[in-house]
Design goal:
Radius of gyration of chain A: 34 Å
Number of helices of chain A: 5
Distance between the termini of chain A: 76 Å
Strand content of chain B: 15-25%
Mean pLDDT of chain B: 92
Number of helices of chain B: 5
Structural class of chain A: mainly alpha
Number of strands of chain A: 0
Mean pLDDT of chain A: 84
Shape of chain B: elongated
Helix content of chain A: over 70%
Oligomer: heterodimer
Chain lengths: 166, 180
């Protein structure tokens, strides 16, 4: 019981520690409404920090990221939504700033490519299964034929045995 | 299995290898700027030293000019600086220096020490102008034509090669365009 308690407490501490490092880059910010805060935190995960390109705006410690967080907060307080803020950032930094690129002729391969590959793969698997089951059907037919011959033989053997026993 | 089907994995592999090889040669910090061929953002900021008054981007209307974003805390700016000084000496193009997220008391001695190629030094301590220009790495250099349109952007320190191959030909062409 005691060890269970200890491990529970330890895991709680670890969870809190993990959360605090994940959010370490964000300043403490206040909003008038909880929806605004929720929008703010969700948006920060949608945008790339241009300075350290593998981090989003929530995680990055770069001063550029801090500036952009400040700007996004200001715009949210002005009542702007995701489309306007997307537009603001794309106009300055290009679509690269969006972790989820918009669907366009340029990004079509990116969006549709995996589904096309999946389709090709599934078609391949289907063809393979079809071929294999056709082959197996033939094998089964052969096997049945030989088994029937076997059956015939064993039936005769049984009869011979019976005759001998008698 | 037909030959084409047998070769398919090889073809797919070669295509993938081709894309990956291309990816290796690209510089991930060089991003296409959405500002190219768009009107440069308008701004008004304090000059450095502050006693010089204010600068408005409208002051440059009708002129071909270069906007260089720099800071005294930026290492590569030191490396780039002689190239800007050469540019100022060789061409009549005005170079405006935007002092980005820096302190005036650090910036001015830095220029005094290394030389000042700028016709104006602008104070962008909060980085607001930098934000409008989509600055993400210092130094950055923009070439703006007589119509106020951004024609070229260079991210990172300018070197002799970038100057010869890109900036100088473009500046010469634009200045000829503007004077004719």
């Amino acid at each position: 019981m005691k060890s269970l308690c200890t491990s529970l407490i330890l895991s709680a501490v670890l969870c809190v520690a993990a959360l605090s490092t994940a959010r370490a880059a964000e300043e403490i910010v206040s909003f008038d409404k909880p929806e605004q805060a929720a929008l703010f935190h969700s948006l920060l995960r949608e945008y790339r920090c241009l300075k350290c390109q593998n981090q989003n705006l929530a995680d990055s410690h770069a001063s550029l990221a801090a500036d952009l967080r400040r700007e996004i907060r200001t715009q949210i307080l002005q009542g702007k939504g995701k489309p306007e803020i997307d537009e603001y950032l794309v106009a300055r930094y290009g679509e690269f700033v969006l972790y989820r690129p918009r669907f366009s002729a340029k990004t079509a391969v990116l969006w549709l490519g995996p589904f096309v590959l999946l389709l090709i793969g599934l078609t391949g698997v289907y063809i393979m299964i079809r071929r294999r089951s056709a082959g197996r059907a033939r094998q089964i037919a052969d096997m049945e034929a030989s088994m029937a011959a076997n059956d015939d033989q064993s039936a005769r053997l049984a009869r011979a045995r019976q005759l001998l026993d008698d | 299995m037909s030959l084409a089907l047998k070769l398919l994995p090889l073809v797919l592999f070669l295509a993938l290898a081709g894309f990956l090889a291309k990816g290796l040669t690209l510089n991930p910090t060089e991003l296409p700027s959405p500002l190219i061929d768009k009107t440069a953002p308008a701004f008004v900021v304090d000059k450095l030293p502050a006693s010089d008054g204010q600068f408005s981007s409208a002051d440059m209307d009708g002129k071909v000019w270069v906007l260089n974003v720099w800071a005294s805390w930026c290492g590569p700016c030191v490396q780039e600086h002689p190239v800007l000084i050469d540019l100022a000496a060789e061409r009549p193009v005005p170079i405006v220096g935007l002092n980005y997220k820096d302190k005036p008391e650090d910036a001015l001695p830095w220029l005094a020490r290394l030389g000042n190629p700028f016709v104006e030094v602008l104070d962008d301590q909060r980085g607001d102008v930098g934000l409008d220009f989509g600055v993400y790495g210092v130094p950055e250099t923009f070439v703006i034509d007589g119509n106020g349109v951004v024609r070229y952007k260079h991210v990172g320190p300018l070197d002799g090669q970038a100057m010869r191959d890109k900036l100088l030909p473009l500046i010469d062409e634009l200045m000829e365009e503007a004077s004719s």
